[in-house]
Amino acid sequence: MNLTENTSEKLQGELKGMKVITGALIGVLGALFLFCVYGLMTNEDNTFFISMIVVPIVLGAIIPLNYAEMKKIKTELESQKPTDLNSNL
Q1: CA pair distance 18, 39, nearest whole angstrom
Q2: Residue 32 in contact with residue 56, Cβ under 8 Å?
Q3: Cα 80 to the chain's mean position, in Å?
Q4: Which residues have a Cβ under 8 Å from the Cβ of 72 and sit 6 or more positions away?
Q5: String of b and e for 11-49 (b: at least 16 CB within 10 Å)?
Q6: CA–CA dist 15, 66 (Å, integer)
Q7: Taking CA 28 as the corner, what is the angle to CA 21 and CA 75, rounded to the nearest 5 degrees?
Q8: CB–CB of 74/15 below 8 Å?
Q9: 3-state secondary structure 40-76
Q10: Where are the transmembrane segments (predicted)?
Q11: Which among 10, 23, 28, 89 counts the fewest CB atoms within 10 Å?
């Protein structure tokens, strides 16, 4: 994705959407991880929970990628701001 071609409004909307999606991903993966840990501690047959605990661990790798993309968008938004401080006077 080429960020320089997008307007500030579009980048701000994209940043807001990524924040919401990343927060939801953290919440769902955290809940799944806790569910698996609880299942491992309480049940005798652990095969399901052992196999399911891999999912939040592996999908957790998406979170740093999202934060890196959000950082790029923030940097692009900063570069698109007007640099002349006297333009508002």
Answers
A1: 31
A2: yes
A3: 23
A4: 3
A5: beebbeeeeeebeebeeebeebbeebeebeeeeeeeeeb
A6: 10
A7: 30
A8: yes
A9: HHHCCCCHHHHHHCHHHHHHCCHHHHHHHHHHHHHHH
A10: 20-41, 47-67
A11: 89
∠ CA 46-42-59 to the nearest 5 degrees?
A: 55
Give the predicted TM-score (pTM) of the model. 0.79
Tell me which amino acid residue 45 is: D
**What single-letter DSSP state applies at residue 87?**
G
Q: What share of the chain is helix, strand, coil (3-state, %, to 5)?
A: 80, 0, 20
Per residue in 9-27, pLDDT (tens digit) is: 888 999 999 999 999 999 9
Is 21 in contact with 62 (CB distance < 8 Å)?
A: no
